[in-house]
Amino acid sequence: MTTQEAANLWGIKIRRVQALCEIGKVENAQRLGHMWVIPTGTPKPIDGRTKEGRTSKHKHNVE
Fold it and tell me: How far is the C-alpha of 20 from the C-alpha of 40, rounded, in Å?
């Protein structure tokens, strides 16, 4: 799917999807020329700025 489709599906802006792809937060996203291609069905990455995201970081440190 494209960044536009991912943005609509995940409820975020296109630029945020692009930024997530650039920093490697979207699994298996590939850059083709000037656009990102994301596998269909890829889940939205957890936002580290939210309470859920902060607690998931702590879980990884404990294990």
Answer: 16
What's at 48, amino acid-wise?
G
Pair of tokens at residue 61:
């440190």
What are the tens digits of pLDDT across the range 17-47? Answer: 999 999 999 999 999 999 999 999 999 998 7
Q: pTM above 0.90? A: no
In the numeric block, which tokens belong to residue 30?
């590939």
Residues whose CB is less than 8 angstroms from the CB of residue 32 and which lie 6 or more positions away in sequence, other chains included: none
Q: Where is pLDDT greater, at 3 or 56?
A: 3
Cβ partners under 8 Å of residue 30, min gap 6: 36, 37
* Start-to-end C-alpha separation, the chain: 33
